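Q: I have three molecules that I believe assemble together. Could you output structure tokens for the complex as a whole instead of separate predictions?
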Amino acid sequence: MIHIQNIAKAFGEIHAVQDVSFDVARGELFGLIGPDGAGKTTLFKILVTLLLPDSGSATVAGRDVVQDFRALRQMVGYMPGRFSLYPDLSVEENLAFFATVFGTTIQENYELIRDIYVQLEPFKNRRAGALSGGMKQKLALCCALIHKPDVLFLDEPTTGVDAVSRKEFWEMLQSLKKHGLTILVSTPYMDEAGQCDRIALMQNGQILAIDTPTGVENRFAKPLFAVRATNIYRLIQDLRQAPFTITCYAFGEFLHLTTQDGVSTGTIDTYLTERHHKQLEIKPIRAGIEDSFMDLMQHA
Amino acid sequence: MKRFFAFVMKEFYHILRDRRTLLILFGMPLAMVLLFGFALTNEIKNARIAVLDLDHGQHSRQITDRLLSSGYFQLTKTLTAYRDVEATFRQGNVKLVVVFPPNFTRNYAHDGTAQVQLLADASEQNTAISLTNYATNIIQTYRTGAPATEQSPPGAQPPMQITVQPRMVFNPELAGAFVFVPGVMAMVLLLVSALMTSVTIAREKETGTMEVLMVSPLSQIQILFGKMLPYLLLSFLNGVMIITLGVFLLNIPLNGSLGLLLSETLLFIFVALAIGLLISAIADTQLVAMFTSMLAMLLPTIFLSGFLFPIESMPRVLQVISNIIPAKHFIIIVKGIMIKGTGLNLLWKPTLILFAMATVLTIVSLRKLKPRLG
Amino acid sequence: MRNAVTTNKLTKRFGDFVATDAITFTVAPGEIFGFLGANGAGKTTAMRMLCGLLKPTSGTATVAGFDVYTQSEQIKQVIGYMSQRFSLYDDLTPRENIRFYGGIYGLKRADLKAKANAIIEELELGSVADKLTGSLPLGWKQRLAFSVALIHEPKVVFLDEPTGGVDPITRRHFWDMIYAAAHRGTTIFVTTHYMDEAEYCDRVSIMVDGQIKALDTPGALKKQFGVDSMDGVFQILARGTSTK
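A: Yes, here they are, computed for all three components at once.
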């Protein structure tokens, strides 16, 4: 459904996107994961025909993003990073406006947005500017869906939104998938990667890895331990000094410790007990997306 | 077309829901006209005048009585010699001196023509103009009352005429007078058309809705024309409003053709909208749009269009530069039509210049349109 | 020193709307205090009151022993503030930014110079110290912003979503700096949308609709709500109210 080949784009000296290639299959929920400045937004703008690539080619729904941009614009739904709504128009007016612009009506494609719009309906006469962040996000999604696009591009739809709204948003995307929509979504939150069918990890304009979330986690090859003790600050200091340590970072209530091969919990326990750490808890763990991302970053 | 209409509707929602926009649209022209108008025009009632009657005849006395009974004028001083005129003005409380030359009555009765001289203190330009206008009207209607006193048979009446010679003292060229209404018109139309369109386009870039619109099937031209149309209508409404205020509230004459005046106003609005388009092509934020508009349009318009400072008294370089200010040509046109009553036969040159500007600016700004960002 | 921050029934109303509804809590010196809540729960309002930027409607609060009603000027001298949205001037170099903020807080010239050098060395900014801040990667800017917020050795630092959008490694480096500052005795008051970061805090409060619905150590909260992560706690407390 989306085919990207060797796309590159630079702004002056900044190489925003460097030689990126990947494919997204029909009906897939594909995540582009990476921090701010990784090049996600630039890549999105190229795919929705807003920017011309310096080199490389891409097609969306079989249409070339450079040559067939007019035809393509009828077929994609796009939600830019900021919730692009008119704050001085009401919820209903916003939706009706975008429907008319795309040559349709709210009624015609109501089926697709019904589950989301029912939550907004009680506020349909409220100005969009007076909605909470989560509600704005839902309205923006409705507006991007109203013309029943084949492919949906969501650029950081969950940035700056609280954890609850984020979770609800991903539930909405899962149910949209059932309508056969192909969805490309970008996010800086690593913990959202698990919601996608496949993900591309992006950093500094380059793709670090493309795989299923589990596939990405499985790429992590080094021993990984979760460690915790009463004094986390001292624990980090000591572990970073340890001869067997490669990296040591805080991960929630635990520290994640990457070590050289052949290190066991016993080795770590001995080392830390010698340094008077109390209530020690050490366990080998499987890597998560974030562990993999950090590991890939360091080798990029 | 339905899409385009939806777009225009949306623009009207924006305008009608934003108090600041409404205030700028309708409050500003009103405030500016009133400010410039009333700051310069005093209420004309019982204005102090002096009479220098060197004729001492029947007609000079009757005209003086008519002037004084009109309610506009109040006689403060009767002068006896021409040399007193300047001293009287210098004292400052007399605004107008009516001079009847010797033999006025005789000339009027015998030749049917006579001259009255009106001297006005033009340091207060608008008062001076209003007073001379009132006095001229009164003196000229005296003619219609004249036949009753003349015993000539009806039909054989010679064309009786009193020519009024207004003369402005202190500011003989009357530079700047009456310019404020054309000037305010030029400024408001520029502000509404160019500044507001470029600011609203920049606002959509800021909220990100421009990206969504660009990705939609709406063409770039539809988006821009959809932005322009409401402002074109509003600008035109503003123009009409200012002309109305000027004519009915400030007593500015409308001697030329109203149709021509409105057509020229429309032409100027096109120039302003084209400038707005050009600015919006370079401005990505409302702030940039605002500053660009201010620097590129408002300041030159205020200082170089002849609005506040007469172009004739500017240094040569600035005089040349002033030719590229659209408002300069528009002010010439409006002054010509309203005050002098001139037609297109004399105003074709500034009209052509505005037309050329509109064409070039539109072509340039349409060329700047790209279907993509960056 | 007594508590770094105390509030007692601190309330702020905007017309009929109660943004912050009688919140009561204390933060100990050197504590890392996580201040969580959904968008619009009242975190920003509460933080502004504590920084002396907004007068409370009722209730009391002190920061570093100073009263928020009467001593807001003293408060501003002893707190640091950093937000994701604004902190540094993009058109000044890192060195100029440091000097500017140091100057605001009345640091002496010689101290300032030493401080600037120390910060630049610590953050390994040597190669870019005289380039414009705007050209630096986001992660560097945020660490620099944090150092600048600490330049006058404040007693309490308020961090408003300091790590949004940063890559995971930089985010950890940032937290390393937070730990180090707390270790030196600075009280850290931090908001975040990353629930794993909530785990790094000594204690966490969760605001819902203007009220503090939970306040304890991450471990105790998880036990109380019977879930295994702070995300779980947050979902239970905030769900269903966020769509209001």
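A: One point stands out. Chain A has two domains: 2-212, 224-299.
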